[in-house]
Amino acid sequence: MKVTDHINQAKDTLISFEILPPLKGKGIQSLYQHLDPLMEFKPAYINVTYHRSEHVFKKTPDGTFQKVVVRKRPGTESICAAIMNKYSVDTVPHLICGGFGVNETEDALINLNYLGIDNVLVLRGDAAKNETAFLPEPGGHEYASDLLQQVVNLNAGKYLEEDLKNTSQTKFCIGVAGYPEKHFEAPNMESDLHYLKMKVDMGADYIVTQMFFDNDKFFAFEKACRKQGLPYLLFRG
Known about the structure:
The chain has 237 residues and is an alpha/beta fold. The chain is 33% helix and 19% strand. The chain has one domain (3-234): TIM Barrel, CATH 3.20.20.220. The strands form 2 sheets. It has a 7-stranded parallel sheet, with helices on one face.
């Protein structure tokens, strides 16, 4: 079920949770132990974060160091499916630009579609550790709007291999991020809202706010969004 359907059918305030995949080497039971007591609150859906790979240096037997790529929290797609199967609750996997090429992203979206997952939250993601600014993966997306366009294309049956015929369309409900206190890289609030509206115009279905610490700024942000006709503003606490 899509996030927008949950909103449209809601008779009261909706609650959702956000979880991190377990660290590599840990089982999913540890995740269930945290979710089991939360199910009494009847969440409409559960967000599952995605985590980019990291470059670390490991010491070799000859005393030198080798640069290797590790992903410390893998399994977002499988965890989404496992939660849906165990709790009969919808899930929203996060998609990020950092650490992923466009082909990896397409494969992830195909897998999510096969698993019956109806929603994705499209984000640029943070800079890698030890980097002062976000750098896209070679062959990956630089902006959340680029990643959004890839999901929109897949919803229209447009795959990276343009010669594919009679393609199947996905039906993802797409969320994007909004920043009541302005994204730290945006020059001003007007610019931030401009790009947020651009993402909605491109095909985003709903907006999830980043955490904020000043309620007045949230109310001002909500008013500005409503003025521009932006849809479904969800508050992240």
